[in-house]
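Researcher: I'd like a structural prediction for the single chain below. Treat it as a standalone chain; there are no partners to consider.
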Amino acid sequence: MNISKYGCDFEVTNNPKYINFWKNHFVNNWEIDTFQFLSRNLNSEKTFIDIGSWIGPIAIPAALCSKSVICFEPDLIAFNELYDNCKLNNLKNVELEKLAVSIHKKISLGAEELGESMTRDSNSENTFDTNCISVKEIFEKYKLNESMISAIKIDIEGHEAELLKDEFLMKLNVPMHISLHFPFVNDKNSFYNTLKTFLDSKNLDIRLYNLNNFTSIEIE
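Model: Treating it as a single chain, here is the predicted structure.
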């Protein structure tokens, strides 16, 4: 199935599990703010890091205008669909990692239905354990430095409450788009403090959004 959005044309599988998303969500108003952020920051000479890639709705178009894209998706069903979509488009500049990104070595994730976009550490259904990689380890493995990164996208369904404690991530001076899933976080007061500490580390005056809803922050 051919998809066209924001000047990008690419193919996705005809998997019935995801056709409704591609036809009725993605091509319309899905993640408008994310794509606006990408349009300002992606660079054909730099690497884009996609943490929480799901089936590739951000990673695939990003790969068409980046030197390389590194994807992290721990849900095996979503990862396999991501792999198939990248293969359909013959993308040679995409690295796929079936790992979570965390400050922990291993975490447990679950979902009402695996392969959908809400696999998270706060769900006790259909759980599985996954190995993790830290942001610092990503930079070491791929021999990256700040000047080589166009942007980092983080969309991990509530585990940002842990990832934003990462001191290496705090010190990075690169554009970031971070989705916040406050309703999925058990200890909301702790998450608020983690988020404030993270933003303070950037020396930025950023308004904290209404944290009772899903939202995002952008650091540029």
